[in-house]
Amino acid sequence: MIMRRMFFFIALLTVLVSCQKPLNSFHLTSPDGNRSLAIELVDDKLNYWVHSGDLQSIGTSELEIFPNASVTILEASESENDDSWSPVWGQQSSIRDHYKELQLDLNIDGVSGKLLARAYNEGVAFRFVLHEGDKPKEAIFKCTYSIPQGSNFFTPAGESEPLGPVDFKGLTDYLLKKSDKKRKISVPLVVESPNQSYMALLESDLYVAKSIDPMQLDIAGAEGKILSVNKVELNEKEWTSPWRVILFGKSAGDLVVNTVPINLATPSKLDTTDWIKPGKTLWDWRVHGYTAPDGFEYGINTESYFRFIDFAAERGIDYFLIDDSWYKEVTKGHFELSDKLDLQKVIDYAEEREVDLMLYYDRRHGEYGDEELFPYYQSLGMKGIKYGFMGNNVDFTREAIKQSAASNLLIDFHDSPVPFTGIRRTYPNAITREYCHAQQDSRRAFTPESFIKMALINAITGPLDMNNGNFDLIGINNGLRQKGPRETNTYFSTVASEAARTLVIFSGLVCIPDAPEAYAAKTDLFEFIQKLPVGKWDESQVLHSKIGEYITTARRHGKEWFIGSVYNQEGGTLDIDLDFLETDQEYDITFYEDTKETHCKTNPEAYQVRKGKVRKGDVIKAVMAPGGGHCMWIRPTK
Q: Glycosyl-hydrolase 97 catalytic domain: from which residue to which, for each copy (predicted)?
């Protein structure tokens, strides 16, 4: 809902080429005046650069839509927008969209179009629009970034620990390391400048661009020069590119809560969204083989799923996600259900206990037919689908999101999906995706350093499905699960850290992967996860952040605050200033924390829960064990 809207249209340069000399130089400032964007035509090519205050953030760089095309600027105009809107769910309940925009009407080797450039206080963005008329069959949307000398770089690395910090040479060596196939840099590329400010290079609003590859980043040869590319097939009369986005932050954590990418996304395409409910889900896949205290062994069977449903109903967990093996084979228009469980009994029991269900689907098992798939899931009474192995295909992913929405289904993309930054605004049913190394995925080790890096790098693109929240760490590390780590004692965390991670990682669907009995055995700690109002946050801040070392995230729902911190294997203390609380209000606080004996390798399940009173301005010393964590739940005293 748009809360307020005001437009200031300034006729900056509306000029006919025949009347005056060609237009070739423009400057745009952010609303607060601290960011300056310059665009200039040099040798018939579009160049730009960005200043932050007196410092150059991006040196002279290029923008291009057709290789080596000559560009003429026909007209230019500037406008300012300042309004607010409310997302269906997210890190904030109200988002301000305040920017200045420069529109350049272009002739690009005879093709009519325009370049839109926006300057926000926290970032800048570019987009091409090609109008109706004759145009080449293909385009290559290129943007270079001239990065300050001496910068450090960080980038996601699929299901491995993100790369970084590396200098430009280290980034070059990374790309050339794999001899059989040249690597690419995944988005976002996070840049730590010599002055220790941060940038992130990514794209937003892929939704609008048809027949396009996801943005790929590479080095452009010269020292500090980065290149981004989208390859496009131009099959439409008018074509709009995604936004090229450069985010800015004083800290790495600022980039994670930056609202520029979602502001750039197309507004919601759904007529009704009351069926979209973010929340927490239990999940069966990592529990198989677990033996409960009463001797029951979990597996793919009806009784196991009844136990999940009972726990979800008793503890207010919104969903239960059933993963692979609920079916044996898939053919066109038909699922052959597994004989290991009675799916209909599970569905009926979940309805009786008022727990919503989600089902996994793996495209490698057969082609059911995408047009029939989502209505079939809806006919089963499912509330969502976890979609595995769909491939890194923009058009396919977009259609899956749209078709799932048509069947009132949430969708969670598994297995290295297209990032699709901003899609949760356009289609809020796109509830999360595994654009990260989910804990234990591929049954590989997972370290605190990996978590902190992904929380400050991968998470810039939007919600992540990381499966945090394991409580039976000793059992998992001892190999007492069918799908635990391949090498025992390689999963380093503490139970307090696991609880904190469910808050730190933003998602519309927080998937907690352990057995009901593991949570029941630590009910006082599980309280923190149980109380989280997932996806219904009014405000989110990253209070402390250093990539690979530590992170503290604070989120507010109404007058309650939830705060989670995670430290690397060095362990340490972070001072958390409660200056965000209201004046003259006393608060109850519950601490969920490591003990002096806790250690991520030798004593991961030692924790303590204690309570107290706090006020605005108090400073909490969050003490964390090696690989540990710290949680706080703060609410007004009644």
A: 286-434
- The terminus-to-terminus CA distance of the chain in angstroms comes to 33
| The overall pTM is greater than 0.90 | yes
Pull the structure tokens for residue 227: 């290149």
- Does residue 84 fall inside a structural domain? yes
Q: Which residues does residue 231 pair with via DSSP β-bridges, in sequence order? A: 140
Query: Domain for residue 42, yes or no?
Result: yes
6 three-state secondary structure: strand
DSSP state of 618: -
Q: Give the DSSP letter of residue 491.
A: B
- Compute the CA torsion angle 278, 281, 285, 288 (nearest 10 deg): 180
Q: Which residues of 208-243 are buried (b: 16+ CB within 10 A; e: fewer)?
A: bbbebbbbebbbbeeebbbbbbbebebeeeebbbbb
How far is it, in rounded angstroms, from Cα 595 to Cα 625? 7
Block means of pLDDT (10 residues each) for the chain, 638 residues, are 38 36 86 97 97 95 96 97 98 98 97 98 98 93 97 93 96 77 86 95 96 93 92 90 98 98 98 98 97 97 98 98 91 90 97 98 78 94 93 91 97 92 98 92 87 98 97 96 93 98 98 98 98 98 98 98 98 98 98 98 98 98 98 98
Q: What is the DSSP string of 196-232?
A: S-EEEEEEE-GGG--SBPPPEEEE-SSTTEEEEEEEE
Q: What CATH number corresponds to the domain at position 26?
A: 2.70.98.10
CA distance 512 to 363: 24
Count up the domains in the chain and report the number. 1
Q: Annotate 480-509 with b (16+ C-beta within 10 A) or e (fewer).
A: ebebbbeeeebbbbbbbbbbbbbbbbbbbb
Dihedral of the alpha carbons of 417, 63, 456, 318, in degrees to the nearest 10: -40
Please report, for residues 128, 217, 331, the alpha-carbon distance to residue 188 in angstroms, rounded to integers and kept in the order given: 20, 9, 38
Distance between CA 315 and CA 327 in Å, rounded? 28
DSSP character at residue 208: G
Tokens of 602: 């030798």
- Under 8 Å between Cβ of 92 and 84: no
Task: Show the domain range for 229.
Answer: 2-149+198-263
Q: What is the DSSP string of 570-592?
A: T-EEEEEE-TTSPTT--EEEEEE
Provide the 10 A C-beta neighbour count for residue 133. 11
Q: CA dist 570 to 439, 489, 511, 627, Å?
A: 20, 18, 27, 7
Q: Is residue 127 part of a domain?
A: yes
Query: Distance (Å, rounded) from C-alpha 502 to C-alpha 508?
Result: 11
The pair of three-digit structure tokens given for residue 230, joined into one six-digit string: 């989208």
Rounded to the nearest 10 degrees, what angle do helices 448-456 and 495-504 cross at? 10
* 619: β partners: 577
Q: Which amino acid is at 77?
A: S
SS3 169: helix
Distances (CA, A) of 69 to 104, 110, 123, 612: 16, 9, 27, 66
The CA distance from 581 to 563, in Å, is: 12
Smallest CA-to-CA distance from 434 within 454, 453, 407, 456 is with 454
Q: For the chain, give the number of residues.
A: 638
Position 443 in a domain:
no
**Where on the phi/psi map is residue 552: left (φ > 0), alpha (ψ -120 to 50), or beta?**
beta
Q: Which residues contact 271 (CB under 8 A, 6 or more apart)?
A: none
